[in-house]
Design the sequence.
């Protein structure tokens, strides 16, 4: 019988360290904010908190445009982005190099949009040239979707460089920053992003259940020309309610999650966006070095590896269930598995949100002890030693 209490300092199973690419550990300040009294969502008090939260959201997106909160997960924002800007029968080009690129394909197909795929090998990133060639080859493409941080593979797409290409085309530039906003460089205005979406439970370190979206003037023009075939995610309704004084949401929002987002975004701004991004990059670099120090192999092409999640090949001869089961049940560290065809072959370390060397030391201790226990490596401490060197 495993005794987690032995390894978890007497703390219960509830005290598992989440090293997932979302949800991430939520700051006690954010949890406390959620316990405030629920107010009337059609009243001045909620209007105030909504205004402040959406303004903070725009600062984090780095856009002068308004942001909108959606009660729903990141996928709700992805669907909102696509369904409101591209009409059924029109063409959209989706970059697909992992699970979330695939999701954009499915969303577009669900809405009767002509979904074109720009396939890139999982573990590699699309290049601006590929986008340019695809747009040159088909002038009917109304919008492209790019997943900034493909969480399933641990790859970051060059969204700034793609933005430069997009300036030469009328097609809208839709970017999913669900697992990168607040952890990697995202400057909506500077990069020329027309529609940017994100979620609460990743680098912003709020609980799951909220998403956000911001749109450029060009994107709003498209919204006005598209007969949306979604009711709950209708952006015209979101805009109408958001323009009220005090602002509202069309339907009942999660008031408590709005408090949580408000507090989480304040924490992001207190740290400073640049500092926060630098902290994530440092954690990514340290994680990659520690993975190598343990003799493990990265899944993603290192040149384009993510600032917020590191995907690692599971060594031959051990199973995902044994590996991640042991890090979680024996050592109190929860890692993510692979998705789709990577299931059983890859594990993923989410180093996003509120993390530093402390969490990485614990994580790599758990990985090292587990792998040694399973007979896959000899030196259980090599990863931890590497982390300490990275943070000296
Ligand atoms: N996009 C990316 C890049 C993600 O990592 C995720 C979630 O893992 C999503 C979209 C979907 O978000 P959600 O699971 O919150 O719907």
Sequence:
């Amino acid at each position: 019988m495993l005794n987690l209490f032995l390894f978890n300092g007497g703390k219960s199973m509830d005290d598992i360290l989440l090293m997932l690419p979302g949800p991430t550990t939520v700051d006690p300040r954010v949890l406390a904010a959620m316990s405030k009294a629920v107010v009337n969502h059609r009243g001045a008090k909620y209007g105030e908190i909504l205004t402040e939260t959406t303004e903070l959201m725009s600062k984090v997106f780095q856009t002068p445009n308004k942001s909108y909160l959606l009660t729903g997960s990141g996928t709700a924002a992805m669907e909102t982005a696509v369904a409101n800007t591209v009409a059924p029968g029109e063409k959209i080009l989706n970059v697909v190099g992992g699970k979330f690129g695939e999701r954009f394909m499915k969303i577009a197909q669900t809405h009767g949009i002509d979904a074109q795929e720009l396939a890139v090998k999982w573990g590699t990133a699309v290049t601006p040239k590929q986008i340019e060639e695809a747009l040159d080859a088909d002038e009917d493409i109304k919008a492209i979707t790019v997943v900034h941080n493909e969480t399933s593979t641990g790859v970051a797409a060059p969204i700034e460089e793609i933005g430069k290409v997009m300036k030469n085309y009328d097609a809208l530039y839709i970017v999913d920053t669900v697992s990168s906003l607040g952890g990697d460089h995202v400057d909506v205005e500077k990069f020329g992003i027309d529609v940017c979406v994100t979620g609460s439970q990743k680098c912003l370190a709020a609980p799951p259940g909220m998403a956000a979206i911001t749109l450029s003037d060009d994107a709003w023009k498209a919204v006005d020309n598209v007969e949306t075939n979604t009711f709950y995610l209708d952006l015209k309704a979101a805009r109408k309610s958001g323009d009220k004084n005090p602002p509202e949401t069309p339907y009942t929002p999660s008031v408590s999650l709005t408090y949580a987002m408000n507090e989480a975004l304040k924490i992001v701004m207190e740290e400073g966006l640049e500092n926060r991004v630098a902290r994530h990059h440092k954690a990514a670099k340290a994680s990659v070095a520690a993975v190598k120090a343990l003799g493990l192999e990265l899944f993603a092409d290192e040149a384009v590896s993510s600032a917020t999640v590191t995907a690692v090949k599971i060594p031959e001869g051990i199973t995902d269930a044994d590996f991640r089961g042991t890090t979680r049940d024996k050592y109190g560290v929860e890692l993510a598995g692979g998705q789709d065809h990577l299931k059983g072959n890859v594990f993923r370390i989410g180093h996003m949100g509120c993390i530093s060397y402390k969490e990485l030391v614990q994580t790599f201790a758990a990985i090292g002890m587990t792998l040694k226990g399973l007979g896959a490596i000899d030196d259980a401490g090599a990863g931890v030693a590497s982390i300490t060197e990275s943070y000296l």
In short: The pocket of pyridoxal-5'-phosphate is lined by residues 21-22, 73-75, 78, 100, 147, 149, 151, 176, 178-179, 199 (CB under 6 Å).
